[in-house]
Amino acid sequence: MPNCFAEEKSEMSFDNRNKNPNVESQILPKFIFSRLSILMLLQFFVFGSWFTTMGLVLYTHHLGGVIGLAYTSCAIAAILSPLVLGAIGDRFISSEKVLGVLHILGGILQFVLPGLVAAGENNTTLLVIFLYMLCFQPTLGLVNSLSFHNLGVKADLFPFLRLFATGGWVVAGVVVGMLGYSSTTGIFYVAGVSSILLGLYSFTLPCTEPQAKSNKFNFLDALGAKSFVLFRHRGFAVLMACALLTSISLGFYNTYASPFIGSLGVQNVAAVLALGQLSEIIFILSVPFVIKRIGMKWALLVGMSMWGIRFIMFILAAQGHTWTAVVGVGLHGICNDFFLIISAMYIDRLAPAEMKVQAQSWLIIAISGFGAAFGSLISGTVYSGTVDIEIVQSWIPLWSIPIGIAVVTSVIWLIGFKEKK
User: Fold this and answer.
1) Which residue has the higher pLDDT, 161 or 71?
2) Fewer CB within 10 Å, N or C, the chain?
3) What 3 state SS string does the chain have?
């Protein structure tokens, strides 16, 4: 394995592509940006077509009691499967083939869900959702690593590629809404069809050969254990700690932003929340320029600290300044893009070739796994103990916690992360 920890001077180099001396002469596959754009669009169309309204569908079919468990199972799946499937992509099978198989299996599982939900099968429904997420969660890291691999020396185009992720999420919501499926099991059919189509499309992508294929087989390596060596690198370890803390704040927002805005008397909550998606498009476009101007460390600090500013806006809204809640939602783009996208870019620069998929998987584990689980658990506990839906000011203690988390995260980042030129 190349020693990615021996020389920290290459840690932040934007021109250091996999430490490959031939990278400058790399010829990119034809129309690769367009092909990857379709991949990103379909990936998040699949995700957005069912995940956002799953709780509403379960509630409508008298399965409201398992909504929390359903979303918790998604977080558990994000902890268990990405590292193992990432190791397979790094070592045994081409990433696009792993991606294709997982999406086809996931699509089949989605077709099973409507019958289970309609029959009121609580436990079996939870099991199938969990199995589906075991298939889906690794694909988030796979899509990132596959995109960076195929972009090669043009990896600075990744933020523009992520525009299509936001587009896929938005288009999914529009399609589901137009079909009238928002509260019906039809969302699972939409997800099933699109997942199978994405699986088939994945097989048409350029071959991404496993970088560690020639290494001697080791059972622990096959389970992703070797990727723990990444935490020996100070930058990676600090980033993972900050990712975990920031994603706890994300859990607060995802769980309670909509009921809070509704409690302010806002009639069209969905339209207000849609401003967050619009802001993502704007801020994604600014990522390459911001990195070039202030560097990766400070750009990531902006993304982390803005989570605190966002919840300060929510507290001001709870004190009677309703318009500041709209500002808080509008900060979604800078909170998400300046953290998630730049983190993925940093990890791609840091990780050795034979661990790139697993390295991206660690980001998914921190954010969608442990962070989402802790965020849901902590916010739910605080909400139950402090919030009175008749008193807007009772939301203030809930939003104060992620402000504190943002402060702690920013301090850890400033002290712990060393950017080498």
Assistant:
1) 161
2) C
3) CCCCCCCHHHCCCCCCCCCCCCHHHCCCCCCHHHHHHHHHHHHHHHHHHHCCCHHHHHHHCCCHHHHHHHHHHHHHHHHHHHHHHHHHHHHCCCHHHHHHHHHHHHHHHHHHHHHHHHCCCHHHHHHHHHHHHHHHHHHHHHHHHHHHHHHHHHHHHHHHHHHHHHHHHHHHHHHHHHHCCCCCCHHHHHHHHHHHHHHHHHCCCCCCCCCCCCCCCCHHHHCCHHHHHHHHCHHHHHHHHHHHHHHHHHHHHHHHHHHHHHHCCCCCHHHHHHHHHHHHHHHHHHHHHHHHHHCHHHHHHHHHHHHHHHHHHHHHHHCCCCHHHHHHHHCHHHHHHHHHHHHHHHHHHHCCHHHHHHHHHHHHHHHHHHHHHHHHHHHHHHHHHHCECCEHHHHHHHHHHHHHHHHHHHHHHHHHCCCCC
CA 186 – CA 202 distance, rounded (Å): 24
User: pTM for this one?
Assistant: 0.74
CB 361 within 8 A of CB 141: yes
Place of tokens 């309204």: 53
Q: Are 37 and 161 in contact (CB under 8 A)?
A: yes
Q: What is the mean pLDDT of residues 104-122?
A: 95
Nearest alpha-carbon partner for 36 in 171, 143, 192, 194: 143
- pLDDT one-digit tens code per residue, 35-61: 999 999 999 999 988 887 787 788 788
Do the beta carbons of residue 19 and residue 2 sit within 8 Å?
yes
